[in-house]
């Protein structure tokens, strides 16, 4: 059982000040958390209709991946009923059941990214790591050999079936998006997926309780995702921010849309042509927030490097190759702040 106190318990206690281990250093804190969160909203993250003609979809994806590293997709083929059902089931797990029942699914505190119900992302002492104002449930969903629904909540009763169906839908959508991203660079459709190999997918449902001091905390600290592509759905409570041109912008949740986040391995594979998205989650004092992120990673034994078709004398490789296992280990060792690990792989192209 994970030893950390669940953030939801702290929030329900009605505390007026957050414990010290949740207070971010001044440089990491939100500049100001306005009472009217809509004032901070970003209405410019691209939204792409996947039912449009490919001639318009490919340029839109190319621009979004170059300029933002993020974009919404709609008409994506994932049933709205499934999106709504999974959001309800995850919210029900956090809100409708006794803590003693939820703790039966607690994460193993001795391993990073262990499956289950947790509050601490990194394996380190609380004195060394500022904690996120967040509880979560992490599910290992692909490959099927890693999928064990008995490790997922049995309440509400539809939870496990919804999660398994959602995993399958996200795999199909991720493959479709990577094919479009490849084609948008003039590559064969399978290029990025071929470089990745079999997906290792995990799905994390994050619950951000109301916070008495949102100006001092983060629901999720600044980071870029370490894998290939992340697919995110939110509820209608804003909180996700993306870093664009040095400014933190709040991403408006779009009904029934899925937010696509370019992750570190895709930046390497595309030789920097497509940018990983640095993002974070802020908190608020009045409303809980739910998000569900689906991560798609290579196997730990896969070596990632820029694809040969994007490397030439005039466009030399920008990144050294890396074994994904080593990249993963470095990320967990250094804490997920900014693009520290990705920048370590940059090559000197000035020679």
Automatic annotation (TrEMBL):
Fe2OG dioxygenase domain boundaries? 198-298
Family (UniProt): Belongs to the iron/ascorbate-dependent oxidoreductase family.
Q: Which keywords accompany this UniProt record?
A: Iron, Metal-binding, Oxidoreductase
Q: Which organism does this record belong to?
A: Gossypium tomentosum (Hawaiian cotton)
What Gene Ontology molecular function terms does this protein carry? Answer: metal ion binding; oxidoreductase activity
Is Protease included in the keywords of this UniProt record?
Answer: no
One matching Pfam family = DIOX_N
Q: Can you name this protein?
A: Fe2OG dioxygenase domain-containing protein
Q: Which InterPro entries match?
A: DIOX_N (IPR026992), IPNS-like_FE2OG_OXY (IPR044861), IPNS-like_sf (IPR027443), Oxoglu/Fe-dep_dioxygenase_dom (IPR005123), Plant_2OG-oxidoreductases (IPR050295)
């Amino acid at each position: 059982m994970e030893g950390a106190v669940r953030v939801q318990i702290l929030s329900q206690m009605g505390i007026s000040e957050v414990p010290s281990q949740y207070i971010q250093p001044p440089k990491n804190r939100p500049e100001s958390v306005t009472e009217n969160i809509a004032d901070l909203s970003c209405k410019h993250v691209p939204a792409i209709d996947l039912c449009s003609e490919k001639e318009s979809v490919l340029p839109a994806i190319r621009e979004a991946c170059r300029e933002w590293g993020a974009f919404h997709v709609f008409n994506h083929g994932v049933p709205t009923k499934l999106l709504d059902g999974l959001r309800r089931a995850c919210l029900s797990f956090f809100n409708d059941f006794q803590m003693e029942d939820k703790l039966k699914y607690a994460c193993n505190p001795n391993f990073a990214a262990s499956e289950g119900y947790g509050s601490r992302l990194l394996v380190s002492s609380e004195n060394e790591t500022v904690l996120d104002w967040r509880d979560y449930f992490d599910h290992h969903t692909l490959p099927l050999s890693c999928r064990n629904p008995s490790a997922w909540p049995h309440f509400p009763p539809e939870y496990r079936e919804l999660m398994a169906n959602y995993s399958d839908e996200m795999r199909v959508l991720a493959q479709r998006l990577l094919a479009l991203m490849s084609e948008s660079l003039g590559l064969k459709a399978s290029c990025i997926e071929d470089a990745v190999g079999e997906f290792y997918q995990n799905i994390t449902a994050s619950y951000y309780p109301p916070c008495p001091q949102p100006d001092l905390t983060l629901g999720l600290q600044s980071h870029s995702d370490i894998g290939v592509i992340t697919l995110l759905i939110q509820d209608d409570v804003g909180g996700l921010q993306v870093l664009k041109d040095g400014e933190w912008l709040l991403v408006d949740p779009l009904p029934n849309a899925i937010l696509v986040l370019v992750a570190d391995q895709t930046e390497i594979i595309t030789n920097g042509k497509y940018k990983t998205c640095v993002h974070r989650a802020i908190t608020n004092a009045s409303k809980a927030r739910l998000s569900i992120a689906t991560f798609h990673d290579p196997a730990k034994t896969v070596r990632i490097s820029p694809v040969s078709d994007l490397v030439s004398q005039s466009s030399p490789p920008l990144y050294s190759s890396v074994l994904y296992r080593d990249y993963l280990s470095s990320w967990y060792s250094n804490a997920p702040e900014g693009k520290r690990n990705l920048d370590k792989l940059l090559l000197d192209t000035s020679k």
